[in-house]
Amino acid sequence: MIFWKRLHAPDQLRSLPDEELCREVTKGNHLAFLVLFDRYWQDVFRLAYSVLRNKAEAEDLVQGLFLEVHTTMLRYDEERGSFRTLLLRYAYTRAIDQRRHLESRRYYTSVQIEELDPEVLARDVSLASGLSLEEGTRLIEQGLEQLDDKQRAAVTAYFFRGLSVNEIARELGESFGNARHHLYRGLERMRRVLASKGETEQSSEPEPKVVLRLHRRISKQVAPEVSGVRARSI
Amino acid sequence: MLEHDRFDEFASLAAVGELSPEEREEFLRHQKTCAQCREVVAETSSLAATAFLAGAPKEEDAALEGERHRRLREGIARSLPAVVPVSLIERYKHLAAAGVAAAFLLGAGVGAAVGLSRQPSVTFVKTPVVVASSAKTEAPHSAIGEDESARLQTVVAELEKRVEQTSGENQALRDKLTLSDQHTTELETRLSEVEKQSNAQAQEVLQAHNDLSAARGELSQAKDSLSASQGKIESLQFALGDKDARLAEVSASVDRERQMLSQGREIRDIMGARDLHIVDVIDRDGNGRARKAFGRAFYTQGKSLIFYAFDLPAKSTADGKFVYAAWGSNSNNLNSKVAHSLGIFYNDDQTQHRWAMKFDDPKLLEEIDTVFVTLEPADKPFATPTGKPLLEAYFGTPPNHP
Fold first, then answer.
1. Is B154 on the interface with A (CB under 8 A)?
2. Cβ neighbours of residue A132 closer than 8 Å, sequence gap 6 or more
3. Residue A59 region, left (φ>0) first, then alpha (ψ -120 to 50), else beta?
4. Contact with chain B for residue A184, Cβ under 8 A
């Protein structure tokens, strides 16, 4: 009796870590799930909106995603990664899938969460998955420093300004294929740099003084964008 | 190696959804057997998610963000009560089973009420109540408290509500099915009619095809017949040409015979005439002086005159510009210049260089006693002689063959 009362008290639930809340959800505690929602909806919405660039689409994705996560809570294995990590991976996969659907205007062929490769989804990638927004931002900034001008222009325009590869190609005055190749090269180099950094600095804490505020950019020009990022990172 | 470099690029781009449909399909096939590419996709996805989050525009209006949070939260909270974690079902399966059984009975009752004899394709008792199960956690069994009982009652009530809702949906589906059946029947009837029409049209087409084939056969035969007829016509025309030529020859022969008969008759008439003058024609030189006779005239007094002239130069009339004309005059007439045209000479026999002229006007023959010949232009009419006399015959003497 005392056990149930305790778990249904919102304040008590809010104080619980994700893993405890997940266990409560599997027992049928809806309030526990709503606490998880309150905790992470904003991250999911921002990620979805950043990919889709459409608030209505992003809201639909948030709602659908949380309901699916609730029904599949059975599969959650805390040993495979944090709830937030998996949630954002789900969200990212869904958002990319939805964007591809919207771009192609084809029938929606999204895979269900259950169909995703559990090995890939559950892998606790030591890059950025488990980091806070600020930590992740700093890590991205460090990766951008390693890119040449065109790679950096392509990556920042793509992730921070929401430009499509076609739009990036027009801004850079290059072909679609070249612009896509710059994006690929940038991603590849950042992945390698950050992977090696993750291995060597796994235990080190990110330095708060270099937190970026990339999401505040409004500029549409690539060059100032790049120079701004570089200036802030020094 | 070079081939896999391409998949390296595909792996990174797949993580951000920038492959074309064809590239994506190709890469997904490859990825199934390539752990390295799966690793790259996972790492790049993680990196991209972090980058997107870092670049996400922040909602500047807190009120709007609060409103969005409230709206989404309410939507999720409304949907959650229908979701029953499996762990609860397992723990209180006797109550859950009762709920499911109630749902089944209620559904069966509704099905019986509508009296449908056929088995519906949609079975409402299988309508899923979304269930999540727990694989790991198994809470220790304890006594069910009042709160827990109330909660389970809520669950059962929810299940009943779902069953009721599902029954309604089932009825709607049955109604739709009935309508669909009616529509299908109508379509089948129309299809049958269309098939009949189609068969009839096919028969007509077949008949028309046969008629056309027969007509083509007839046409072919007619063409053959026409071709044969044309050949026959050509041969007949050729034979007709021959016949015409022969007819012309025969006609010419007949004409010659008639002419000969006629000439023979004339000769007989002349020879048998009582008052016949046979006169040698006197030639005259360029100055009109008489020379050796070069012709002969047979004059039957008051009846006819046949004038034969020999050795008139054919060259003068060869081009058709001049003709030899015969004139009649009376030597007793004081006006010797009065001359009557008797006609022109024709070449009677080229081998003998003989020219002839016939005249049989008795009245005029009574008035003349002299006949002479001149050369006259052929292109204009002549009433009086313009050329000098070339031949001359006089009949003023008594008949020398009475």
1. no
2. none
3. alpha
4. yes
Residues of chain B by 3-state class (helix, strand, coil), percent to 5: 60, 15, 25
Domains A2-122 and A133-233 share a fold: no
Q: Determine contact, residues A95/B17, Cβ cutoff 8 Å.
A: no
Q: Which residues in chain A are contacts of B9 at CB distance < 8 A?
A: 181, 184, 188
Largest CA distance in chain B: 189
Q: Model confidence over A128-179: pLDDT tens digits?
A: 456 677 777 888 888 899 899 999 999 999 988 888 899 999 999 999 999 9
Please state, in angstroms and rounded to a whole number, the distance separating the CA atoms of residues B245 and B237. 12
Residues B223, B391: Cα–Cα separation, whole Å: 72
Q: Which CATH number is B273-394's, of 3.40.640, 3.30.56, 1.10.3470, 2.60.40?
A: 2.60.40
Domain boundaries, chain A: 2-122, 133-233
What's the ipTM? 0.71
Give A133-233's CATH code, choosing from 2.60.40.3080, 3.30.70.1170, 1.10.1240.10, 1.10.10.10.
1.10.10.10
Strand order in the sheet with B340-344: B340-344, B322-329, B370-377, B391-394, B276-284, B290-300, B304-310, B354-359, B346-349
Instruction: Count how many residues are written for chain B.
Output: 402
Instruction: Compare all CA atoms of chain B with the CA of A96 and give the residue at the minimum distance.
Output: B17
Using the Cβ of A23 and the Cβ atoms of chain B, whether some distance falls under 8 Å is answered with: yes
Please answer yes or no on whether A70 and B75 come within 8 Å at the CB atom. no
Count Cα neighbours of B303 within 13 Å in the Cβ-side half-sphere.
13
Q: Which of residues 234-273 of B touch A (CB under 8 A)?
A: none
Give me the phi and psi of B292, to 5 degrees please.
-65, 145
Q: Is B343 on the interface with A (CB under 8 A)?
A: no
On chain B, the residues whose CB falls within 8 A of the CB of A63 are: 72, 75-76
In angstroms and rounded to an integer, the radius of gyration of the C-alpha atoms of chain A is: 20
Identify each DSSP E strand in B123-265 by its residue range. Answer: 131-132
Question: What is the pLDDT tens value at each position of chain B, 402 positions in all?
Answer: 467 888 889 999 999 988 988 999 999 999 899 998 988 888 888 888 888 888 887 767 888 889 999 999 999 888 876 545 444 444 445 554 555 444 445 544 444 444 443 433 333 233 333 333 333 333 344 444 566 777 788 888 888 888 888 888 888 888 888 888 888 888 888 898 999 999 999 999 999 999 999 999 999 999 999 999 999 999 999 999 999 998 998 888 888 778 777 776 776 777 667 677 777 777 666 666 666 657 888 888 778 888 888 877 777 777 888 888 999 888 877 555 688 889 888 888 878 778 889 898 888 888 888 888 888 988 877 788 888 888 888 887 877 766
* Nearest by CB: B12 against A49, A70, A187: A187
* Contact assessment for residue A59 and residue B68, using Cβ atoms and an 8 Å cutoff: yes
State pTM to two decimals.
0.43
Interface A–B counts its CB contacts (< 8 A) at: 201
Please give the Cα distance from B304 to B298 (Å, whole number). Answer: 8
Give the closest residue to A18 by CA, choosing from A73, A89, A60, A92: A73
Confidence of residue A180 (pLDDT cuts 50, 70, 90): very high
- Name which CATH class applies to A2-122: mainly alpha
